[in-house]
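A favour between colleagues. Tell me how you read the following sequence-structure pair.

===
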Amino acid sequence: MSFARNKQLLQRLRPGRLLLFFLILWLLSALFLFFHLQVLRIEIQALEVQRLELALDNYLKRSGIHSGGNFILESETPREIDFIRLVRGRDQLLFTGNSTMNFTGLVDLDPLAHGVWIDLFQPENSGTWLLVSRKITGGVVQAGKDDSSAGAALYKRAVSVSFWSFCLAGIPSFLLSFLLTSLVRQPLQHLQEDIASALQQRSRPLAERRQKYVELVPLYQQLDQLFLQNQQLIHDMQSSLDNVAHDLRTPMSRLRVVAEYALQSEKSDPELYRNALSDCLEESERVMSMLKVMMSVAEAEAGTMRLELEELDLMKTLEDVRSLYQYVAEEEQIAVSCEGEKRVIVLADKTRICQVWANLLDNAIKYGHESGTVRICVEKKGKMGIVRFYDDGMGISETELNLIWDRLYRGDRSRSRQGLGLGLNYVKAVVEAHGGQVLVKSKIREGSCFVVRLPLVSN
């Protein structure tokens, strides 16, 4: 069973990732062996040169060369040295204990040449010889040693061992790469299982499922938050669709009833058909208006709303909207007044801002008390122009104050009134698109105050 589980895990592992880990580990082993050989080479060469220099210094000391004056070279060279060469002007003297050496090329060799593992007769090439030199009175003493059976041989054996070690390192590198790939995939595999379980059960937060992966706890928490946001989004979308369906049902039903009545009528009365078409047009305009507002809100929230900015006097735009709603206010027996500072200039889209005033004034009239009042006040405060809409209507409960700005939201007390629940959401979107802010203060049965803040035109 364990073998089957490992086989299944191997099948799940990506060959590319496994190969990548294997190559990285194998390359690291190659780099380790390479640097190890370089250090070993330097150490061996330094040790061999030190031995040769020490042997030459001892030889010269025994010959009396360091005491000055005449000196006598020993005829027998030390065993650490293959040859000793004395050069004075054009004269050269050579001592060697190696009978197999070819000395012909030594005549042209630079007496001051130094080298480690070089070709004796072509010092610029690699070889197995060591060369050291010492200046003496009136000349130069040079010593050489063939290191092919000592340090150079040791280094070659180390190279051979390192090569085979590098080849054999492929086995542990593959095993380690398999282990690393498994360890990397394991928490992700558990995460996948937890997400699948959470989608099915929705009972426990993800963060409570895997506490042993401490480094993944923030990821689990973010996924929990994402799930909650998605659930809230689905709930809001469902609620929005229900509201849209509810609000569209009335105009669409009326449009159909009017059209069916006109089609089923046995009278050939042009006035009847004209009225039916007029009613259909009115209902279709209502539907188109709602859809247009929804698209405008979506544009504003996405930051793509196109604004035709111009300098506007807030009081003038408010007076225009007030005069437009004067007839509606008189029907509800509500007095509407505008007061405050003149010449409060902002940079805004006239059509959009007038729609904002119309929505706020329409709500104030619609939800106000009969024979009540609506006051609109304008003032400057710092770099902002402020417009306040006061009404003495039914007010808004504290639980609804943060919900009235949501798309298609309608409070319980507003369900009996005609509306789509898009006004305040549109107001907020347009005001924020202008770089402003909209707030509300309200008390039940005492009224509400909507505050709009817009940036003034800088002088």
Observations:
- The chain has three domains: 1-66+73-203, 214-305, 310-455.
